Amino acid sequence: MDIVPFVSSQSALVRAMEERHSVRQYLDRPLPEELIGQLRRAADAVNEECGTSIQLVVDEPRAFRGFRSRASAFQNVRNYFALIGPEFKQLDQLLGYAGEKLVLYCQSAGLNTCWVGASYKMVKEQYQIVLGQKLAAVIAVGYGADAGKPHQSISPEAAAPQYESAPTWFRNGVDAALLAPTALNRQKFRFKLLDDVDGVPQVKATTKRGPFTQMDLGIAQLHFEIGANAPFQWT
User: Least crowded by CB within 10 Å, which of 30, 41, 140, 199?
Assistant: First the structure.
């Protein structure tokens, strides 16, 4: 399976990472039925790969009509992915990794997105959560009123102290990770290149404590993999 369903080339993935910016205001423009089907198939593919139960909710405005949504400047959000998965310690990290696959696909399909950790209301009848599962966040999706703005990033050396002396593939991975969205724009993830095991490079990804930092780590790991575009193992 491609690293992101339906995005066929490395150059398209890199372009999607570079062009993706968080968008909170959307046009009153419905998603075409054909595109809705494509998004649902993409979610199915991600769920099969990652063991998640992410579901697309379409034409449902209630989740973003509350005070928290208005205070966070969300406008006209009617479509979103509900990030659902099995309750276990690494769920946020898994959903970050899986959900960002869908974010990059949406970007490549001409849509805009925004990760939303708290500024939404649960509308339980719009998705299915079975016993042992949890809704951890949502991703707003639609046609943005604008394309969003780039976020400020920490330096590559702050994200990976070995950056300057590391091989090109590792530096490319770090550069891609710094394009990843994070809660409150706080890039608390760190990457470390370790000794090879059986000839395969090993990379350790960690993060500091804080709201949604594990989800941020999963997002950043996907970006790292895409940017590195080389064989290695997480450890």
Answer: 199
Give per-residue pLDDT as tens, 165-202: 999 999 999 999 999 999 878 899 999 999 999 999 99
Q: Find, among 118, 109, 53, the residue nearest to 81 by Cα.
A: 53
Q: In this predicted model, what pLDDT tens digit does every residue of 49-88 receive, in sequence order? A: 999 999 999 999 999 998 778 778 999 999 999 999 999 9
- What is the maximum alpha-carbon separation in the chain? 54
CATH code where residue 60 lies? 3.40.109.10
Range of the domain at 69: 10-142
- Across 218-225, average pLDDT: 98
Cβ atoms of 95 and 136 within 8 Å: the answer is: yes
DSSP letters, 89-114, are: TTHHHHHHHHHHHHHHHHHHTT-EEE
- The distance from CA 59 to its chain's CA centroid, rounded to whole angstroms, is 21
Please answer whether residues 63 and 98 qualify as being in contact, where contact means their C-beta atoms are separated by less than 8 angstroms. no
Q: How far apart are CA 160 and CA 192, in angstroms?
A: 6
Residue 84: in which H helix or E strand, if any? strand 80-86
- Residue holding tokens 């898994």? 94
Side-by-side strand order, sheet with 189-197: 189-197, 200-207, 233-234
